[in-house]
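Predict the 3D structure for this chain.
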Amino acid sequence: MAAEKINVCYALSDTDGGYTKIAGTSICSLLDNTSGNVIVHILHDGTLNKRNVDYLYGLVEEKYKQKLVLHDVSTSYSDLWERINGIIPKLANSRLSIATFFRLIMGEVLSSEKRIIYLDADTIVNMDVRELWHEKTGPNGIGAAADPFIQKYHHNITRNAIVPQKEYFNAGVLLVDLDKFRLVEDLTDKALSFLMRHDPDYLDQDILNYYFPRSCVLDGKYNAVVWMEQESHKSVGKCIYHYVNNCLGFEMRDEYNALFYRYFSKTPWCDEIFIGNMSRMIEYVRFEILDLGNKCANKRRIVVGLDSARDSICNMLMLREDELFIPFEKMEEYIFDFNKNKDVLLIALNQPEYESMRENLKSLELTEDIHFFNLLQKLGIEKSNTKEYNLFLKC
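Done. Predicted structure below.
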């Protein structure tokens, strides 16, 4: 009897060369915890550089003695690639990579396979994936876990009842019966039409929810959203963890950061090049903080932040009596004269609130990083860990 073969699929586009180590860490966690035969399929667009390709083969085939198959969609499947590229105009204002749409063509690219597990690159498989492999899919060929955020808060597609809110799933981890998946013909063309009709918030995830209803059949442990686990103060367990919203940071007292780096340290990307680049990035951050201090020197600081954070912000910055803290919630009540030569505005808000202020200040002919600053970004203490995540990618 032939040994069981587990197919696991990732999608990658990496023009800068830094993102592959995120996927490599996920692959390491997958293979480190799973016994038996695993075939890792990577759908990519030809942007993987030689170093990353060598490291991927070294990790999968040399370290773990498993099989790696790279599928260059842009050359070997040029017709599909052209259809996927038809979606690119919809990506103009999106945080998503084109690679996320490769999920839509899994059935055609992996034409000889019957079953596949799809994993987003920003996952950590802290369990034996064979448990997921033996789960059942929904009636249309996909098995997925609920998206707890969307099921609690409406977004465009669920608000308009295009997809039932209580059936909405997160597409970062999928168990796919490819024979049933292929029954939806011309999925990429249908996807483009869907995007034009509905202008969805979550693009391909909304598309999959629409064309593969009743797929929300898997336990939440197969796609545990890290930032929600952190907010609930849950301990790390036997789950597949999804590091959405750039929630990876450097604070090692956090179990989820420590879990990621435990596996990253086992990959070939954790080498002298990474350590050297990280040291350089730390110096860059120190320079940014020093630069901010210099630009604030001999100027009156006006700080905007949440009223609940007033004491901690004022103490951290050691605001003088002549300086001002304005609660964001009460900004409309304040009228203050801003002197471009004598004042500097420090905004201690998370990104969405900062962006709303940023546009208003630019309309007043104030220049970012001269007249006003994103304080949380400069200090590297954004709630989302975006700065730390981006520094990791650059190393």
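The two ends are 46 Å apart (CA to CA).
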